[in-house]
Amino acid sequence: MSPLLALVSSLCWGLADFTGGMAARRVGALRVVCITYPVGLVFLLILALTIVPGTIDPDTLRWSVFVGVFGLAAMFPLYGALALGPMGIVSPLTALGGALVPVVVGIVRGETVTALTVGGMILAIAAVILVSREPGPHRRVTPRALVLSAAAGLLIGTYLTGIGVAPETSGIWVATLGRAVGSGILVVVAIVLIARKGTASWRPFPWKLAVVTGVVDALANGLFQLAAQQGELIVVAVIGCLYPAATLLLAHWLLKERMSKIQGAGVVLALGAAIALSV
């Protein structure tokens, strides 16, 4: 069950990247996140209170603050790197960086690493690199973009590790309360932005895209926490890093963006990685 939850989580992150990216093109990433975070918080609160049982204790609260701070901190280098590009380098660096920290922590904690797990990890790395290859000439990557990509990946990985090692009895409360910490900070940011520049830059706001992004991204985080509670953090983290494949497929199906043969091979490898890590 754990690999399936991780795979659905990865698909949700891929969808959130797709819809969030479309919304960010209209009003900017920071403004979109100021809305998606609180929306996601409301959704997670409903799930935590009505569907997914869990307890809140001092450990849960400490991990919630931890993941809230690191999750929000990851967004700034992430969007800075995406602005500098190229996407074909930024995307795999952040995805693989996001898997690296949980994998290292899982190994340190003594989780079992089988030959099949290692094979699945290698397939996942290759898949993420291939699906992120953009057809045509590539923009030159700057040292600043590389540094920001690496920083974003490590911060995301630290955030996911916090969710993954949180108390098993907490349900999805760490993901939920962590989102509350980030939402509180972003509400202040939104107020400051509006006070300084008014609301003109927020209009017309892509509310539908923002709401979908907030709900799906929050769902991905909640599913990741449940997956990590039921299985090995190493496996869950690597499956979670496959989300660029989902984003690519959505762009191909809905926006009719061209998918190269190399990217298609990456999608096949991603499927192979998911199967290997699920066995």
Commentary on this structure:
By secondary structure, the chain is mainly alpha-helical. It has 11 helices and no strands.
Topology summary:
Elements: H1 2-27, H2 29-50, H3 58-84, H4 87-108, H5 115-131, H6 143-164, H7 173-197, H8 207-230, H9 233-240, H10 243-254, H11 261-278
Helix pairs in contact: 1-2, 1-8, 1-9, 1-10, 2-7, 2-8, 3-6, 3-7, 4-5, 4-6, 4-9, 5-11, 7-8, 8-9, 10-11
Task: Give keywords.
0% strand; 279 residues; mainly alpha
Gist of the model:
With about 280 residues, the chain is mostly helical. The chain is built from 11 helices and no strands.
What gross morphology would you assign?
Answer: globular
Helix content: over 70%
Total number of beta strands? 0
Overall pLDDT level = 84
| SS summary, helix count | 11
**Rg calc:** 18 Å
